[in-house]
Amino acid sequence: MLNLKLPWKWKECGLNSSGKKMAKIFVQVVVILCLGWWWWAIMVDAENLKYKDPKQPVSVRVKDLLGRMTLEEKIGQMVQIDRSVANATVMKNYFIGSVLSGGGSVPLPDARAQDWVDMINDFQKGSLSSRLGIPMIYGIDAVHGHNNVYNATVFPHNVGLGATRNPDLLRRIGAATALEVRATGISYTFAPCLAVCRDPRWGRCYESYSEDPKLVQNMTEIIIGLQGEPPANYRKGIPYVGGTKKVIACAKHFVGDGGTTHGINENNTVIDRHGLLGIHMPAYLDSIIKGVSSVMVSYSSWNGVKMHANRDLITRFLKGTLKFKGFVISDWEGLDRITSTPHSNYTYSVQAAISAGIDMVMVPYKYAEFIDDLKLLVKNNVVPMDRIDDAVARILSVKFTMGLFESPLGDYSLVNELGSQAHRDLARDAVRQSLVLLKNGKNDSDPLLPLSKKAPKILVVGTHADNLGYQCGGWTIAWQGFSGNNATRGTTILAAIKSTVDPSTEVVFREDPDSDFVKSNGFSYAIVVIGEAPYAETGGDSTTLTMLDPGPSIIKNVCESVKCVVVVISGRPIVMEPYISSMDALVAAWLPGTEGLGVTDALYGDHGFSGKLPRTWFKSVDQLPMNFGDRHYDPLFPLGFGLTTGSVKDIVARSTSAGTRGTPSFIAMIVATIAVCVLQVHF
Ligand code: BGC
Ligand code: BGC
């Protein structure tokens, strides 16, 4: 029982001792009833909180929650911080709305899916313990599979996917990526990149599906895979995320990132409005129609105006004309870079960016400074409260739509989705479809591909033949990518060759053999794998577009001595014209990712080549920029070029059916037998 000190003197009330006892019990009962009633009232209120009720429409929940929030809580929702500065206390005390992993920002080296879920759930518990318990969203660049994560399936980079020209494949890759991302407790990916790269000197050209805006539009189908397919009656333009196996997608970088002068990263895109809308904008419209939930702003400028401060394009056009109802996120330190010396007038940058219409800010480190600056700007009526409310309402809409309030924590039961065999098989198929066959035989009647699996002795050479990191490119494990075979799991091209050829075939690997060695070993043929070393963003800007040394001398030493197929691993067309005549065959493999078997599937004819160039292949860098439709168009290989081969199986089937259509069947059998012999025992 409560031991209450009664605040008056019993004697003065004229009570005897039993009366006193009764009164004391009476008061105690009243107090307990009051406390009970108070507790009950809180509980009932909590249950009646409209924003916590999943049966309420999203707009009702948003309005209800917004009405309960303080300015600090609202601004907190607009903040995204990197995981390296996040912990449960920061999440709770600053009401942080979102956390991210920048490139290579991982909980621990070689972290398992469980380790990711542990970390993210810990941050989330901090958010849930805040006054209103608003869950945070965790974002990451899963731009070719869940590429920051050890043991994830790494798909080809976008340039390779553009070569497949297969939207259905893109949708399936999106769905697989969403599952791998969710396997680590993450609900948001900064993908797809919708850049229309108009100059391969740009270090991000491999993040672009194509120089052709139409092709980029078709590839937005990946959004449906990532976020799920909105139901038939769903209103176009409203963000959609179909539950706990799907993730928020992000169309980036709005807009004109791929059109900068000389392909210099984060530079100025000089083009009239008609050109901007015709080349760089169309894919955003497709994305919005498909329900994309977020759009990231580009570091670049349009005709001298920083996109992060461009109210006309972000608020008036994207949110107004295109009716985008999701949230707009800044790029990493994008506000800092509004001033030409980054961070030199941060308060101004905050004002310019928020006024332009940015809703969530990838700060990502100095969050207290951002919060203080924005608070001050609102208190002094520089940034109006309804701008803040618009930003927060958009963020909350997405959080409610995706069911985050109902399922805020990572789900350990999905951990085995990471790097699953089904996803690796899909990636292998994607690699196969992404390969573009540029040359096959010194003349048409003497094709080198498909290669024989039964040759007695073959040579594999080159800087990229046995290097998983090179094969994956930038944005893999580390921001700038890695070199070697240990940082994640996958199959190198060398390993793929070894497991494809007949056990009787001797496979000799030398990274950089001299020509005497090549000549004197009786090789049936050589596979030369060369290309670019990994890079990301500005690190990849190049004025020369040359292959990694000693690529050119490897090609010379090998191709002048034995029949050779050259496989180029690169994020874009690179200088190739001077070497091409010495090669028997040439394959552009882009940045295929972890599944090297996709390359051998086509080299050895288990599947045909079908990829088509998603970009113009230039003769010399002096021609750049050069895109299809240009008046001075004079490419080595034009956009859309790509030789095809049937699979060995198809070729045999075709010759057999040709036979049954009129040729006596014994002749058909002979034709088929010859076809098999020519293809399998090529030399
Ligand atoms: C890139 C974005 C990326 C972000 C987060 C920026 O540097 O431009 O594409 O999403 O970092 O890693
Ligand atoms: C981060 C990237 C980010 C880049 C921007 C790097 O340190 O890891 O995610 O895109 O900085 O400059």
From TrEMBL:
SUPFAM superfamilies: (Trans)glycosidases, Beta-D-glucan exohydrolase, C-terminal domain. This is Uncharacterized protein LOC111467651 isoform X2. GO terms for molecular function: beta-glucosidase activity. Residues 435-644 form the Glycoside hydrolase family 3 C-terminal domain. PANTHER family: GLYCOSYL HYDROLASE FAMILY PROTEIN, PERIPLASMIC BETA-GLUCOSIDASE-RELATED. It comes from Cucurbita maxima. One of its GO terms (biological process) is glucan catabolic process. The keyword Transmembrane applies. The chain crosses the membrane at residues 21-40. Signal peptide: none annotated. The gene is LOC111467651. Residues 70-398 form the Glycoside hydrolase family 3 N-terminal domain. It holds the Pfam family Glyco_hydro_3. Keywords: Glycosidase, Hydrolase, Membrane, Transmembrane, Transmembrane helix.
